[in-house]
Design a protein that fits this description.
about 5% helix, mainly beta, 3 helices, 6-stranded mixed β-sheet, Immunoglobulin-like, single chain, 22 strands, globular
Amino acid sequence: WYHPHCNTLTQMGHGMTGVIVVEDPADPEFDAEVVLNLRDWRLGGDGQFIAPFRPRDAAKSGTYGTVRTANWHREPQYDAPAGGLVRLRIAVTDVTRIFSLKMEGADATVIAIDGNPVPKRFPLDLLQIGPGQRLDLAVRMPDGEGAVATLEDIRGTAPKVIASLRAVGSSLKRNIGDLGPLAENPVRKADISAAEQIPLVLSATAENTAVESICGTLGYSFWAINKVPWPGDTPDPTAPLAELKLGKSYIFNLENTTPHAHPIHLHGMSFTVISSSTREVMPLVTDTYLIQPDEKVQLAFVADNPGDWLLHCHIIEHQKTGMTSYVRVS
């Protein structure tokens, strides 16, 4: 997906996000495909944009929108062949909202996360994905004409309908178990035994006025990586978090000491999730990890892309109030 990285909160909040689908001709055959761009809008009673954030919320989980949509519509519905297999591609391009997704009225299987096939497919019983993350589902449509399958967000006090799929025509009687595999992306595997460890501690910071940076500031500093909010109050406030050698393996030892979840995103490279202190994890290949409060996780990768690569929380208020840095690969 794509979005701007300057004046980010306002421009993304006003709708400048989109999805790019790169198709593999060797992918298994689906009977329909639906792409969902999930995002909120901060609108007042008159339908006009209101302030994109509130400082008291930016210092917590973020400022939520007042209108939630999929593809710019409230609870849109799409037709799909009865008894068929639908590839549902989901991108959370919101600036704040973390979703707890569930499917009602149909069987849904997770086949890819963040553009990479999962090592082992699993049913969508309940899955959290945050801003910046993508999800591919194989949905087996109900057999009856007119039956509806509903994608819901159950995070919060009451389930919210995101979008729905309506069965049309005679049943195709497809079976998810017959769906062939997705090809792996060409991501180099890290040498865990030789990997260098890099500590990354996510924390809150004492509220103070943020330093003006190249893309401006929200005027506050609430968050930090390794105790330094961006841009840091250090001898070189724009120095890289780490300098990595091209082709070498590394492990991010990521620790969340805050009471809030953070979708941490690395530009330019993908990592593999190898362990968590709070749960059993699948070795997912991804570029964004939704780290839970008080969780410690290990993310392994090969520094195979030269350049300066941003590392940040994809809750944009957290990014813009300190939880940002970058690594240099050379």
